[in-house]
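thought: fold this chain, then report.
action: predict
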Amino acid sequence: MGKDKLDHNHPDKKILEIPSIESLREELAREESRCDFRKTLWNIAVVLIASAAITALIATRLFMLVRINGNSMEPAMEEGEIIVIRQTKETAPGDMIGFYYGGRIFLKRVIGSEGDWIDIDQDGNISVNGEILEEPYAVEKSLGKCDLEFPYEVPEERVFVLGDNRSVSIDSRVRSVGCVERDQIAGKAVFRVWPAERIGRMR
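observation:
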């Protein structure tokens, strides 16, 4: 800004130097730059806070993470993997769902829903409403542990679920587990987040 100069003819007086237009413009530009920087920082902070809030909301209301314990869903899910479950009660045959049982979340595949007639022969071949079910996800078919009498009709508001690894899975074939009630369903497995080499959508 402007500086005071001495008047040599009158040493006791000072001459006020008026700043040039250019220097005023430079000072104004510096002030605007400082204001823009503060505004940018504030905008970034607001975006970060909003993003964190939205992420927390999604994580607690729409999705959950589940770590696979056991091998009843191999090869679709392997022990130690971390799976994202989208919370929903709506399911369809072929969906891999998580449901609450004994204080834990179990993961199985939906085979049929209310009113469907399920039949499983001694070789583990499944038919639903009289039609043989194609199961590319089941590597080895097996009747497995089963105390149901077939054909079996799925009760109202329930789904019939099986593990893909039929010889070891404990599922709706066993009366102690039975068909899964809608209220038990935690959601549908939609994405694998770990391990890194298997990250991707669930199929």
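thought: worth noting. The domain at 63-201 is CATH 2.10.109.10 (Umud Fragment, subunit A).
final: tokens above.
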